[in-house]
Amino acid sequence: MLLENKTAVVTGASSGLGLAISRDLAHKGAKVFGLARRKEKLAAARADAGANFVPVVCDITDESDVARAFDVIQKAADSLDILVNNAGLGRFGALDSLSLEDWDVQMATNLRGVFLCTRAVIPTMKAQNVSGGFGGHIVNVASVAGLLGNPNIGAYNATKFGLRGLSESLMKEVRADGIKVTCIYPGSIETEFFERAGVPISANPMTAQDVASTVLHVIEAPDNYLISEVMMRPLRPAG
Ligand SMILES: NC(=O)c1ccc[n+]([C@@H]2O[C@H](COP(=O)([O-])OP(=O)(O)OC[C@H]3O[C@@H](n4cnc5c(N)ncnc54)[C@H](OP(=O)(O)O)[C@@H]3O)[C@@H](O)[C@H]2O)c1
Fold first, then answer.
1. What is the DSSP string of 174-226?
2. Does the pTM of the predicted model rise above 0.90?
3. Which of 17, 95, 180, 185 sits CB 3.0–4.6 Å from 231 for a disulfide?
């Protein structure tokens, strides 16, 4: 897809990977609606990404908030070409000591939020697929934790394995409508993720910018060429 004058929605645009993807899309000429809850971080993201970045305060776990956000976006934009379902979080710990709240917030953010945002864009993307053209591209940010189970991240594993299943199902459901679905599986990235999860980051993480560059490569692929899954890892995880 050529990015100039396209419309993108990126969830979790206020920090980390979502900010890096938003910045790259905006610099390539796409209008980017960046969703997140922290208004001041979104304002900083606009200063960083430039005038093509439009902050939209939205809690993606809240059905009415998502409906309101996409209503605003659809009134402001001529098309809806890209959705990056990036917002997500981890709450780690042994399963028998994990609180219900920590379980629920991961399910709500990493799966329910993806469902709500994806459901909001598909009708428009289908309608854009006129006479065998191109409908749009949905990129889901899973994790290597969507492919490999490990101790103490069971709930996070469950959400990211779930996201893999959702992505594969949706990819087969909408590709005949000219809509691409890609699921990415990054290893450790240097972002606020680990601080918020309350665990130390691995010794040699990838940068958000490196992962964003691959996401841009996937989105910029020719229209009849679908990269449906990508796994990324740091070369020397132990440093
Ligand atoms: N960092 C890693 O090592 C790593 C590895 C593999 C995959 N991932 C995945 O990459 C994605 C991005 O994470 P990150 O590493 O960039 O972490 P991050 O810096 O903590 O960013 C998470 C983003 O999600 C947003 N968010 C969280 N809950 C939200 C909600 N209810 N509504 C709207 N936005 C919400 C946050 O914004 P607000 O707080 O402002 O709402 C923030 O912008 C996540 O899906 C994560 O699972 C991360």
1. HGGGTEEEEEEEE--BSSTHHHHHTSPPPSSPBPHHHHHHHHHHHHTS-TT--
2. yes
3. 185
